[in-house]
Amino acid sequence: MSELVTGEAVALELRPAKLPSRALAVVIDLIVAFTVYIVVTMGIVASTASLDDAAAAAVAVATFVLVLVGVPIAVETLSHGRSLGKLACGLRVVRDDGGPIRFRHALVRGAVGVVEILMTFGVVACIASLVSERGRRLGDVFAGTLVVRERVPAGPARFVPPPPPWLVGRFAGLDLSGVPDGLWLAVRSYLTRMGQLDPQVGWAMAERLAGDLAACTGAPAPRDVPPAAYLAAVVHERQSRDAQRAFGGGAAGVAPVGAGPVGGPGPVYPGAGAPVGQPAGPAVAAAPPTLDVAPTRPREDEGPGTGFVPPA
User: Fold this and answer.
1) What phi and psi values does residue 271 have, to the nearest 5 degrees?
2) Which residues touch 188 (CB under 8 Å, ≥6 apart)?
3) Contacts of 282 (CB under 8 A, 6+ apart)
4) Which of 25, 155, 195, 223 has an alpha carbon 20 to 30 Å from 288's alpha carbon atom?
């Protein structure tokens, strides 16, 4: 299994395709491509019999590039990484982050594939796949893609609990570009399982993760926020930024992944009952402080106080 990390700090456990299945998919694609190439060539030769040798050679080269290079690139682009051979073998080409490929990925894979598959009869591609840890050929390395198996049972998804409402937007100025994917995975794993941990162990783990996260962002973690709530707020900030990049500025108020229904009970973060020897943080589920306004004292000419203050 190979863990690919998405923008929401979710680990996608994907199984890279092995060399035999990939070779079978390539053989199927090549058989189909050469069959189409032969049929198209025969039609072009019959229709261009009156051309001279130079023109016939140019038409032959254009047919080769269009059918054996251009058509596979178009098929992978339109099918999001599933050619006829990959569809038959249950494979798909994805990006390094698990997303669908685009035209530039298919173009690089197809251009490099001409050298490592067509010109060398697949020898270079086989050697590169055997050497690579995830079975990638040179076209996958240059394009930033990976061939994975689609016919794998998916496990149950775990959701990251939302942060307290009064922490949403507080860490909008943090620089999250230096946080590695491994730390995002560790934070997400803790947040999804913090209710199953011993309070002392959970508190120590949250403090350690919060310290690592603060070191990567360059800003210290606030002392008035429990470490678990701080982690949830920072993960929510990253999810909000990814949503803004994906859907535009109108997604600034997007709900965090895994958030429950509006008005439902929120998650309980460690902090109200801190372990012995640790400073007790403020209750995370508490509402933000309100202003203490003294009641207005009625004037003598107003009679008994009724709580109503006439306009000035």
Assistant:
1) 155, -35
2) 9, 10, 11, 160, 235
3) 224, 225, 226, 271
4) 195
200's enclosing H/E stretch is helix 199-217
Distance CA 20, CA 126 (A): 10
Residue 286: the pLDDT is 39
* Contact by Cβ (8 Å): 234, 192: no
Q: In three state form, how does the secondary structure of 114-157 look?
A: HHHHHHCCCHHHHHHHHHCCCCCCHHHHHHCEEEEECCCCCCCC
Exposed, middle or buried by CB within 10 Å (0-12, 13-18, 19+), for 304? exposed
DSSP state of 307: S
Structure confidence at residue 35 (pLDDT): 92
| Tokens found for residue 161 | 């609990």
Of residues 165, 157, 159, 158, the one with CA closest to residue 262? 165
Categorise residue 122: left if φ over 0, alpha if ψ from -120 to 50, beta otherwise.
left
